[in-house]
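Could you help me review a protein record that somebody else here produced? This is what I was given.
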Amino acid sequence: MLHVDIPTTPEINALIASRGEAQVSFYLPTTPQTQHIGQARTTLGNLLKAAEDQLAAAGKPKRSIAAISEQVADLLDDDDFWSHQANSLAVFVTAESLRTFRLPNALTEMVEVSDRFHVKPLLRAVSVGQHAFVLALAENEVRLIEVFADLPAQEVRVPGMPRDAASAVGTANVNSRSHAQRQGGSEGQNVHLRSYCRKVDAALRPTLKGRHEPLILAATEPLLSMFRSVCSHDGLAAEAIKASPVRKSPQELADEARPVLDGLHAGILRGIHDTFSARENDGRATTQIDLAARAATFGAVDTLLVDMDEVVPGTVDETTGAVTRAAAADAATYGVVDEIAGRVLMSGGRVLAVRRDDIPGGASLAAILRYAL
């Protein structure tokens, strides 16, 4: 199985804000198959040698280089760590610390050496909408399934979740409401089912509180419409799995959720592209790196799309946002687009790391501005 550490927003912000005389970012493909993990360890060893060369060429203190090398060497020797991997590994090292993230998505191997970390590839793990919850709702059962990008889906235990509709309303079955209570037959059944949906929604609130992943409903009518009418979770997806979830495994439900997630992600990108087109003529959207850097420095970027793979070496002035490009990456430079992304995030903007084909004009980035500069 995959062992994944998806970075949280505070963790990403801490990496973006970190500064030091020598900070090294490693990205490399890995595998959950322990018998084949040797190649990943070899790759990290080779990337470490490249980092050492860059640090030495930049005149960094030998003690700092030695401390970084020692920490990575310790990681390379940790058999238990390498026996629990996913599809990619991100490693962030300074002379004082080492932090790793095991990621479900496939990333290209690279090493970046600078006075700050290179976080743009890490953003891919939180940009693509392949993490969600599926509520498998039926009269005789209800389950919450967590769906991951490349991990096996798993059922989530929800405290207080009703076992089924009958137990939720305290009857032998949902058709048992008497005519003396003014309702019977299908009308009484609907009253019970709606009460069941409200109790399911109430049980979900603590579990989903603060979560931004979409909630996809798997149900048939009338439960599908009933739950949608009482659901208090803002992330309930407009599209649903309109089929009975009974006797379906978590992975089967996850597979049925994929088209819904793909549609949500495509819809987000369409919305960004539409907004970009509408604002471009007003000077409130750009694919120019220099303008985007200046806007990000002034906190003027609302939404930013960045090519997750490309690295544009250089520097960005801390005060003016002026970009100075470099012919090649070294310890005195960093990824310019990565730096722009970091400044957007720190000013409360939204950043999506995507493939180049998803960026207007196939550019390195596309920025939607809060106001024209």
Notes: Confidence is low (pLDDT under 50) at residues 177-183. DSSP finds eleven helices and 15 strands in the chain. The CA atoms of residues 286 and 367 lie 5 Å apart.
